[in-house]
Amino acid sequence: MRNDELLALDRAHVWHPYGPMPGRTDPLVVESASGVRLRLAEPVHGQAELIDGMSSWWSALHGYNHPVLNEAAHDQLGRMSHVMFGGLTHEPAVRLATRLVEITPEPLQHVFLSDSGSVSVEVAAKMCLQYWRSVGRPGKQLLMTWRGGYHGDTWQPMSLCDPEGGMHELWSGVLQRQVFVDAPPVTYEESYARMLREQIALHADEVAAVIVEPVVQNAGGMRFHPPEYLRVLREACDEHGVLLIFDEIATGFGRTGTLFGADQAGVSPDVMCVGKALTGGYLSMAATLCTTEIAEGISRGEVPVLAHGPTFMGNPLASAVACASIDLLMSQDWALEVKRIETGLREGLAPAAELPGVREVRVLGAIGVVQLDHDVDMAAATEAAVRAGVWLRPFRDLIYTMPPYVTGDEDLARICTAVRAAAQAG
């Protein structure tokens, strides 16, 4: 199909994420991808390929077309691509669940597999609500979180996004009204920690669980917060009989410099959600892990099952690739690579702080953020990045990068150049 034909059909029929129908600008057509490069069907602004500074929305840790992941997918395709998980099981899913238990905090022993991060949050919420109902506390029906977070686009996760200024503000009058506290400060403040403790105590009779993104609030604004606040949450939740959920969908698998954000605080949640990088960006899959106390509590209840069952739950193909991706990550000195990327981002993005319109530059692990004092001109910023040979996807007032861990120093420097160019243009 010619490029112009493909774009015409795309414009007529394909609804892209967070966009109108039809779209106002044509997307770039990617023909193939390898390593950290996206090859375009036709050159754009003189660029036949672009360095991916986004890891395909933070999922492609190992880059593209990786021989180890390709082999895992190919081998599993020859066995079976899918089989229902109700009443059946298979080695890839069992191996994946076991591997996840091995690498996550010790109290997490049970794994519910699903097909997207948003659904994993739905499952986490359902687990916590049903646990309290099962143990005789049906009044605990709400969730608590801090403002500025993002947990997905399905119904329950939307209710946990900031109802004032968040991307799902439109639904504030329809969604369940959860309990919100102020967003965490960027430095540790005892007054804020005291407020967290007080609010958990105040709402303990109605709140089933607190849910937060540990260390980094991602799609809600790319804000960082001290891990000490996670310890405050753990202590307060334990004291007042509230469960704690960590949404590690974006922060898991090394992105912040530790394997999971929870590791930076040395605490364990009662429930953890993982996704995005779980399969190395190859296939859609997520998981919700919980403690034995939660699993056994639900299983002793009046309805002794978790009534949730995605059609593609435990998909063998995704499970096999996820196992290969985790093994590949753990077989390497991933922490050293993330530290190398962090150093490169700090050096390469520091000059952006002097640009007009830039409010702040911040870096943590393999995450680099340039925040403007105004909303980004998406078209201008994207064009500037593409001219520099890099794919970025700014949003709101943020131009940021989360590169694959295999990004070399030269390519990392080009990503930083593109971020600065986008900041100037946007």
UniProtKB/TrEMBL annotation:
It is found in: Cytoplasm. The modification N6-(pyridoxal phosphate)lysine is found at K276. Its EC number is 2.6.1.62. SUPFAM superfamilies: PLP-dependent transferases. Keywords: Aminotransferase, Biotin biosynthesis, Cytoplasm, Pyridoxal phosphate, S-adenosyl-L-methionine, Transferase. It catalyses: (8S)-8-amino-7-oxononanoate + S-adenosyl-L-methionine = S-adenosyl-4-methylsulfanyl-2-oxobutanoate + (7R,8S)-7,8-diammoniononanoate. InterPro entries: Aminotrans_3, Aminotrans_3_PPA_site, BioA, PyrdxlP-dep_Trfase, PyrdxlP-dep_Trfase_major, PyrdxlP-dep_Trfase_small. One of its GO terms (biological process) is biotin biosynthetic process. Pathway: Cofactor biosynthesis; biotin biosynthesis; 7,8-diaminononanoate from 8-amino-7-oxononanoate (SAM route): step 1/1. PROSITE patterns: AA_TRANSFER_CLASS_3. The keyword Repressor does not apply. Pfam families: Aminotran_3. The record marks Y18 as: Participates in the substrate recognition with KAPA and in a stacking interaction with the adenine ring of SAM. GO terms for cellular component: cytoplasm. Pyridoxal 5'-phosphate binds at G117, S118, D247, P310, T311. Its main location: cytoplasm. The keyword Transferase applies. Substrate binds at W57, Y150, K276, G309, R393. Its cofactor is pyridoxal 5'-phosphate. Belongs to the class-III pyridoxal-phosphate-dependent aminotransferase family. BioA subfamily. Catalyzes the transfer of the alpha-amino group from S-adenosyl-L-methionine (SAM) to 7-keto-8-aminopelargonic acid (KAPA) to form 7,8-diaminopelargonic acid (DAPA). It is the only aminotransferase known to utilize SAM as an amino donor. PANTHER family: ADENOSYLMETHIONINE-8-AMINO-7-OXONONANOATE AMINOTRANSFERASE. HAMAP family: BioA. Homodimer. This is Adenosylmethionine-8-amino-7-oxononanoate aminotransferase. The gene is bioA.
